[in-house]
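Q: Structure for this?
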Amino acid sequence: MADITVGKRQVRPDFTAHVPGVRRGNHEGHYKRQPGHLPYGRSTSRRSTGVHPKTKNPILPGMPNLSPA
Amino acid sequence: MATVQNTDAERRELTEVAFDPITRIIGNLGIYTKIDFAAREVVECRSTSSLFRGYSVFMKGKDPRDAHFITSRICGICGDNHATCSLYAQQMAYGVKPPPLADWIINLGEAAEFMFDHTIFQDNMVFVDFCERMVKETNPGVLERAERTPAPHADVHGHKTIADIMRAFNPFEGQTYKEALQMSRLTREMCCLMEGRHVHPSTLYPGGVGTVATPQVFTDYLVRLTRCLDFVKRAVAMNDDVFDFWYEALPGYEEVGRRRTLLACWGCFQDPEVVDYDYRTMNTWGNAMFVTPGIIVDNELVTTDLVDINLGMRILLGSSYYQDWTGEETYVDRDPLGNPVDQRHPWNQTTVPKPQKRDLDGGNYSWVMSPRWFDKRTGDHLALDTGGGPIARLWATALAGKVRTPYVRSTGHSVEIDLPQTPNSPEVRLEWTPPPFPNTIERDRARMYFVAYAAGMALYFVERALDEVRAGRTKVFEDFKVPKEAIGVGFHEAVRGVLSHHLVIRDRKIANYHPYPPTPWNASPRDSYGTPGPYEDAVQGLQIFEENGREDFKGIDIMRTVRSFDPCLPCGVHMYLGDGRTLTQSHSPTFGHRA
C-alpha cells in the first residue's frame, strides 16, 4: 500500500452489504414467493394490487394479462 | 509568462498558456500549452488532473451486489452507464442472465441517457464555443461572413443564415440553447421511466430490473421520444450547416484537433436473444450488440472481438502519481478461455496512490493513468481515444456492418438512420459516413448523429419491449447466488466513450474492482513509452485560427478541440485530504443495525 497516512476506519468495508434479518432479494427460489408472478415469466394482476385482484384480470383466458402498474 | 527556448531546427519564442481548470466540463482538467504565436501554432501540450477518487481502493472488501449502486456515483451525468456496466460485470460473475424484457428496459434507459447527455453537452456546452457572442470575440471575420451565408437546410430548422443559427446557440437566450434544456428534461423523464431515477438508477439490479413493465410505462416513454424526434431532426441539420460552413469559412480548419485514427468503442445495447453474459461466448454476444464494439486503427477495423479487446488492455504509468503494481498480487492469471492475462491488465491492477508535486517538465503531472491497448500485430501500446464517444461508436458500427434494425442499419461503410414522421416534421433518412480522419469538427458532428441513432434504436426497443408485454412475458428479474469466487467484466459505452468494469470476487466479497471509463483513455498523460495521451496529441501541432493576438488570446481552437472529446474528469481518476483532516462518518441502516 502507498505510504500515505490515513485515519483508522470506523466501519467495515462490507458494513452496508447485509443487515441480518432482512431477506436478500436475489435468493434463489425467491421468484416463486412473489405474489402474482407465475412460472414461465408470466404475471397476473395480483402483481399490481392485493385489492380484489381477480376482478382486474382479463375476462377471457386467451387475452393477455396486462396488469396495471 | 513568456519563455524562450530552443527547438531542434530553429529558435522559437514560446509562450506558456495554461487553461486550468477547463470550464463547461465536470471535474478538474488542466491543459498546459506552449504556443508559438509568431507561427500561430501550439507546440507542446500537457493534460493534467488534480483529482483523486479512489473507487478501486475503497471498493475492496465490499459486497459485490452493492457495486452498481456505489460505482454509479463515479459520475453525476453518466452514472447510469456505470451502473449498467457494473451489472454486466456482476451478471458475468454470478452467472445469471436477466429475462429479455429486463434487457430491453435497460437498453431503453440507456438510449434515453445518450439522447439526454449528448444534447445537453452539444447544445449547452460545445456550441457556446460556436455561438455568435463567442465568434464575435474570437473570429469577427467569420461572423461577418456567416451573416451573408444562407443556411442550406433553412427549410428544416427555420434559420435563414448561419449567423442566425449561431445566435440560436447563444447561452441563456438563444432558441436552441433553451430548447435543448427542455429536451434534456424530456429525455431524463424517459430514463426515469425505465431506470427509476436519473442519474443514479434505483431500479437496476444484477439479474434484472425492478421496473414494473406495463403498456403504460412504454407508451409514456414513446410519447416523450416522439416529441424529441422533431428536435433531433432539426438539430442534425443545424449541426451540418454550421460545421460545413466552418470548413468553408476557415480553410485548413480540418487540421484542428486532427489525430491519427485510433478509435475505441466497447459496444452497447445488448441483444437479449443472444446475450448470456458468459465470458466464453463474449465474442458472439458482443457482435450482436446494437452498437458494435470495435477498434479502428488508421481507418481500418482491427477487431470486434470483446475477448481480444479485453486481453489487449494495459494500464501504464509514466506520468501519473502512482506506484507501480507489478510486484503486487496477481488476481487473474488466465481468463475463462485459458488466455494469459497481463499484470498490467485491470483485473490485476492494484492502485497505489503516491501524491506528489506536479512536474510538467519530464516528471509526473496527473492523477490520470495511461490506459493503452496492446496491438499484438505490431507490438505497439496504442493510445486509443473515444473521440467523445459518438464518432467511435458510429465508425465501428459502420465498418462492422452487423446492425440491422428497421430504423438503424449499418451498411459496411456508413450508418443509415430512418426517423419516422412526427407532429412537426416529415420522415427523414440520415446517413453518417466516416470522415477521412477524426478532427474537432467531425467529433462534434458525430454527436448529434448519434442522438438520432439512439432515438432510432429506442423506437425499436420500445416495439420489442411491448411485444414481450403483449405476449404476457412480464418477468423482469432472475434469482441468483453470489459465488464464493468469480471474475467478471462488463463492457458498455458511457456517453463519452468506452466503459469497462473489471471485477474479482473472493470469499463473496470484492477482491479487486477497476472501472475504466472513457476519460482516462482520452485525458491520459504521457505513458512509460513517452506516448502522449489523446488530448495532448490532438492539441500539439494545432494551428491557431483565432484572430486575437497574444494579448487577448482566448485559446478558442484549443478549447474546441479539448471539448470535442467531451471531457469529464470525475471518472478520469480513481479523496485525499492531506494531513490532519478527519471526515465524520455516520450510518443509518433502514431496518436498524442488527435488527
